From TrEMBL:
Any matching Pfam family: SKI
Annotated keywords: Amino-acid biosynthesis, Aromatic amino acid biosynthesis, ATP-binding, Cytoplasm, Kinase, Magnesium, Metal-binding, Nucleotide-binding, Transferase
A Gene Ontology cellular-component term: cytosol
Pathway listed: Metabolic intermediate biosynthesis; chorismate biosynthesis; chorismate from D-erythrose 4-phosphate and phosphoenolpyruvate: step 5/7
Residues bound to ATP: G24, V25, G26, K27, T28, T29, R131
Protein name from the UniProt record: Shikimate kinase
Superkingdom, natural source: Bacteria
An example Gene Ontology biological process: aromatic amino acid family biosynthetic process
Family annotation (InterPro entries): P-loop_NTPase, Shikimate/glucono_kinase, Shikimate_kinase/TSH1, Shikimate_kinase_CS
Record family assignment: Belongs to the shikimate kinase family.
Amino acid sequence: MSSIDLPVPVQRFDRPIVLVGLMGVGKTTVGRRLARRLGWPFRDADHEIEASAGRSVSEIFADFGETAFRDGERKVIARLLETGEPMVLALGGGAFVSEETREVVKANALSVWLRADLDTLMERVSRRNTRPLLKTENPRAVMERLMQERAAFYSEADLAVDTGDGSHGRTVIAIIDALAHHLTQETSS
């Protein structure tokens, strides 16, 4: 499918799309596919932070702590979004918790909350040991706590899409359908 095959409101949409949700939900993988489908660039906030800092997210957490990481994260996200250029941007799981980051996203982009159940998330995050917040004796308990704590923040996203069976292709289609519906509602209001 080409971008011509997209619903007309989506073809005309030209603001950044920001994917939010818990680690392991598929923001990066889905984001890459969505960007390709739209013909837009893809950016991953964690990769942008690492490039800016010259070190990995894990190293930033270990050397400076979560507060310093979140401060740098907020600045990088603001810099990316304030250009106004169409892109798909995947945020780290905790980024949307920051009120300042949510405000920047709301002012400059359309946000999509990707959701998945706990078992799916745990299966995905267990594939790699690169998640600083899950380097604990009971990562499942941490993930469950994060789901509860962050749901209220994620629910402020413009759209919410369930990742369902985990098919990234179906998730991209669901995002495009939700975006088309949202844009149609927005123009008819």
